[in-house]
Design goal:
With 379 residues, this protein is of the alpha/beta class. Helices cover 27% and strands 18% of the residues.
Length: 379
C-alpha cells in the first residue's frame, strides 16, 4: 500500500557547497557561520516568491530567519510549495493573526516558576536552556522568545533554576529545551547535565532538539562522550517530512544511539507539509530505520500567524486511522493537542469503541470489523 524507503533513495551530499572543503562542511561552527539570515543571502541560490520576500522583510520583528547550508540543500528551489521550504522561509501569511491565536499558546508563562523554568506537570519541568536555534521553524510555539526578535531576553543564568529543582523532590524528570540546547558549547552542555545529575531525585534527563536535523555535523565525538558519560539521556528530535531523514541524519542518530541516548521523534501536523498518509508513513518508516521511535504528532499550536499551517483536527484523526493496523505499532505516533492555556498534552485518537453495554464492549478493528469482549472478569 505504501512505498518502501530504501536507503539508496535517501539524500546525501554537500549539494550546492560541493566545492567546500570537507573539514569546513563537516564542522558545525561552519554551518552556523554560513546560515541564510537575510533576504540578500538567497541571491544566486534561490529566487524568492513575492510572498517570501515580504515574509523575509518582517521576520526580524517576529521570529528571525536562519537556515543552515546543510538544510537548505533539502529545499526544492524550483517549487514554492516544497514542504522543506515552507518550514523555514518566512511568508507574508505570518502577518495574519486569527482571533484564537496567542503569543503563548500552551500557557507556559502561567507555569513559569522562575525565569526559564516551567513546572506544569507534577513530576517534571521544562528547562529553557537558550533562546537560540540552528534554524528557525516558522510555526514555532515559542516564537515569543526564540531568536529574541521580540525582545523577550531569556537569560542563560541557570542558578535559580537548578536551585528550584533541587528544592522540589517531587521533580524527577527534566526536559532541556529552548531554543535548542545543542547550540550550546560542549562545555556548557556538560556543566548543565552534570549539575542536574548531581541532584539525587532527578531520574530522567531529556533533550528536545532539532539540531541533528538542521545540522547533523553537531553530533561530534566530544558531544557523544558527554552524553554517554551522563546517560541514559532521552532525546526527542523533530522531523516533519521524510526528505529530512538523510544519510547524514541516520549517521548522526547512530552515533547518539551508541552513546546511551534513547531516541524518539516529535512531528507537527502541517498543511501542505505532511498532511497525507503516504508522507507520514514514509516518515515513520525512515525514523524506525534510523532507530528513532515516532513518538508524538502534534496538532499545530495556536501560535500567532500560523493559520496557514494548521489542518483540521478531524483530518489528523483520519490520518492516524490510516496508519493504525497498516504498519507496525512502533510506526504510529500519538496524535496530541497541547491544550491552549496550559492544559498539557491531550491524546486524540480514532474511536475504536462502538458501544459499551452492561456486559460487553463492542470494538472495531482497523478494518472496521466488529469484535466483542466481556466487561467483567471470570470467576
Amino acid at each position: 500500500m505504501f512505498p518502501r524507503d530504501h536507503l539508496k533513495n535517501w539524500y546525501k551530499g554537500q549539494g550546492l557547497w560541493s566545492d567546500t572543503p570537507d573539514y569546513e562542511w563537516n564542522t558545525w561552527q561552519w554551518q552556523m557561520r554560513n546560515r541564510f539570515n537575510k533576504k540578500e543571502d538567497f541571491d544566486g541560490y534561490l529566487k524568492l516568491t513575492p510572498d517570501e520576500e515580504e515574509g523575509c522583510g518582517f521576520a526580524d520583528q517576529k521570529l528571525l530567519m536562519s537556515i543552515t547550508p546543510y538544510f537548505f540543500n533539502l529545499i526544492d528551489r524550483d517549487d514554492p510549495d516544497c514542504p522543506i521550504r515552507k518550514q523555514v522561509i518566512p511568508r507574508k501569511s505570518e502577518k495574519i493573526v486569527s482571533p484564537e491565536e496567542l503569543l503563548d499558546p500552551v500557557g507556559e508563562e502561567n507555569n513559569m516558576v522562575v525565569e526559564g523554568l516551567v513546572h506544569r506537570y507534577p513530576d517534571r519541568v521544562l528547562f529553557l536552556a537558550t533562546p537560540y536555534c540552528a534554524s528557525y521553524c516558522r510555526y514555532c510555539t515559542r516564537s515569543r522568545l526564540v531568536s529574541n526578535a521580540q525582545d523577550y531576553n531569556l537569560h542563560s543564568e541557570y542558578d535559580a533554576r537548578i536551585k528550584y529543582i533541587s528544592e522540589h523532590p517531587e521533580i524527577r524528570d527534566v526536559l532541556l529545551s529552548g531554543g535548542d540546547p545543542l547550540v550550546l558549547s560542549n562545555r556548557k552542555i556538560a556543566e548543565l547535565i552534570s549539575r542536574l545529575r548531581a541532584i539525587p531525585h532527578i531520574e530522567f534527563i531529556r533533550i528536545g532538539t532539532r539540531v541533528p536535523v538542521f545540522m547533523p555535523q553537531r553530533i561530534n565525538t566530544e558531544l557523544c562522550e558527554i552524553l554517554k558519560e551522563h546517560g541514559p539521556i532521552f532525546m526527542s528530535i523533530h522531523t516533519n517530512h521524510p526528505k529530512e531523514c538523510t544519510i547524514e541524519l541516520k549517521e548522526a542518530c547512530a552515533k547518539l544511539l551508541s552513546s546511551c541516548v534513547v531516541m524518539g521523534n516529535q512531528s507537527v501536523l502541517m498543511k501542505g507539509v505532511n498532511d497525507n498518509a503516504d508522507t507520514l508513513m514514509s516518515l515513520s518508516h525512515r525514523l524506525l530505520q534510523m532507530g528513532v521511535k515516532p513518538y508524538y504528532l502534534y496538532q499545530c499550536d495556536l501560535i500567532t500567524g500560523s493559520a496557514h499551517f494548521r489542518t483540521d483536527v478531524q483530518k489528523g484523526i483520519e490520518l492516524i486511522r490510516q496508519l493504525r493496523g497498516f504498519t507496525t505499532g512502533y510506526a504510529v505516533p500519538q496524535y496530541v493537542i497541547d491544550a491552549p492555556g496550559g492544559g498539557g498534552k491531550i491524546p486524540i485518537n480514532p474511536d475504536y469503541v462502538k458501544e459499551i453495554t452492561g456486559t460487553e464492549i463492542i470494538l472495531l478493528n482497523y478494518q472496521g470489523n466488529e469484535y466483542r469482549y466481556p466487561l467483567h472478569g471470570g470467576v
